[in-house]
Amino acid sequence: MDHIQEQFAAWLEPHGLQVTEQQFKQFDRYVEVLADWNERMNLTGITERGAVYEKHFYDSLTLSFHVSMKEVRSMADIGSGAGFPGIPLKIMFPHLQLTIVDSLNKRIQFLQHLVNELGLDGVTCLHARAEEAARKPEHRDQYDLVTARAVARLNVLNEFCLPFVRKDGLFASMKGANPQEEVAEAARSMQVLQASLMEEHALKLPLEQSERHIVIVQKKGSTPKAYPRKPGTPLKSPIV
Questions:
Q1: Over the stretch 109-128, which tens digit does the pLDDT of each residue have?
Q2: In Å, what is the CA distance from 170 to each residue of 101, 215, 220?
Q3: What does the alpha-carbon distance between residue 204 and residue 207 come to, in Å, rounded to a whole number?
Q4: Run of H or E residues at 182
Q5: Which helix (H) or strand (E) holds 211?
Q6: How far apart are CA 150 and CA 213, in angstroms?
Q7: pLDDT for the residue numbered 5
Q8: What is the pLDDT of residue 177?
Q9: Is 209 left (phi over 0), alpha (psi -120 to 50) or beta?
Q10: Is 36 helix (H, G, I), strand (E, B) or coil?
């Protein structure tokens, strides 16, 4: 192990996570593929290996500190961008059946290439708007866990993501700045979409010490027929 890997292992160890040699190979290959594709399309502003390990990989895995991933079978990552948090979680927890939904076809091509390069099984990369995918029976009210990382405000995210969550399943929104205001603003959307706030967690990145927050919402019932509304509507007129 080199210094970056040792550091990463040390950050995860207190949370009961051990990284195997094979997983480190996958993480390192991820860094390479990300840097390569990033020269042709804008996936991330962060490509330096140490920074990717901290600000993308570690950041993604913090979700597993608060959600028991062993109990999660199916997971959907909405608006995954360069694959966060879905792919790092899949690397660490290979049993996950992961569906990634992104509206930009170029990103889906990158993700499909990445999945092939990393030799990951049980990953579906879906080119679709969240509002349309959540209307399909194979995705609606189906997933144990749904994630979104820094995609939109919570009242909008609820409409993008909660329709994918099964009854009693979880939606985890991963945020940077303190989301107190967003959580208050999203109360109505949770009520309408048959969900309730379960818990919130605050943490800091180990080196950079920048703030991160995870908001966990639990689904209480099936998605009402009217939701999600047609593409573009949740962003233009969020549920208030």
A1: 999 999 999 999 999 999 99
A2: 17, 10, 10
A3: 9
A4: helix 180-185
A5: strand 211-219
A6: 10
A7: 98
A8: 87
A9: left
A10: helix
